[in-house]
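R.M. (postdoc): so does anyone remember the format we settled on? I'll just put the structure tokens first.
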């Protein structure tokens, strides 16, 4: 097991209308290898909601944004930011700026590589089935109310050797929903 800290934290800022107004290179590169100019062209002015999948995760982000803007103090949101071949945990700081804009600073607190998981590989062929993945803890719902780490879900659902795999849709497990709803900015005294 190895872990490391990134030198450059992904940072992006949305304005009062939830549109991207600033992105740094580390954030842009999470969409693939792009130049700084490409990042500007592809990302700036887009609603952040273009990049948030799932109705419930969006509703929860809206709750967090409302609280950060109303109180004018930051919150910290722990998140899994896995790829097919990497487990990662980030601590995302939502930092209110003036004019109701919000800066997002993503601090990697843990990263470790793993054998690539086909279920998380966007190039793998998909079929009509769909599985929910928690947008916060990255666990997969294997049946109603039962969520497992993706490696365990692949075994539980016997997905290792199939020619096509279910689609992955973003949702929110009960414990993450509860913890997001309990997240309030601490007003600075
Ligand atoms: Zn969860």
């Amino acid at each position: 097991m190895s872990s490391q800290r990134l030198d450059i934290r992904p940072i992006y800022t949305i304005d009062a209308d939830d549109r991207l107004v600033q992105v740094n290179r580390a954030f842009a590169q999470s969409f693939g290898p792009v130049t700084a100019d490409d990042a500007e062209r592809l990302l700036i002015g887009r609603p952040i909601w273009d990049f948030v999948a799932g109705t419930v995760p969006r509703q929860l982000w809206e709750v967090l944004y409302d609280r950060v803007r109303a109180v004018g103090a930051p919150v910290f949101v722990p998140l899994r930011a896995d790829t097919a071949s990497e487990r990662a945990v980030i601590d995302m700081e939502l930092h209110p700026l003036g004019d109701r804009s919000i800066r997002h600073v993503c601090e990697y607190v843990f990263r470790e590589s793993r054998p690539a998981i086909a279920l998380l590989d966007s190039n793998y062929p998909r079929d009509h089935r769909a599985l929910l993945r928690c947008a916060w803890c990255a666990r997969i719902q294997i049946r109603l109310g039962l969520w497992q780490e993706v490696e365990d879900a692949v075994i539980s659902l016997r997905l290792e050797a199939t020619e096509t795999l279910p689609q992955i849709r973003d949702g929110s497990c009960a414990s993450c929903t509860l913890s997001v709803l309990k997240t309030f900015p601490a007003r600075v005294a």
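R.M.: ...and that's the designed sequence above, right after the tokens. Also worth knowing: DSSP finds five helices and nine strands in the chain. The beta strands are 11-14, 20-23, 75-80, 86-96, 102-113, 126-134, 140-143, 146-148, 165-171.
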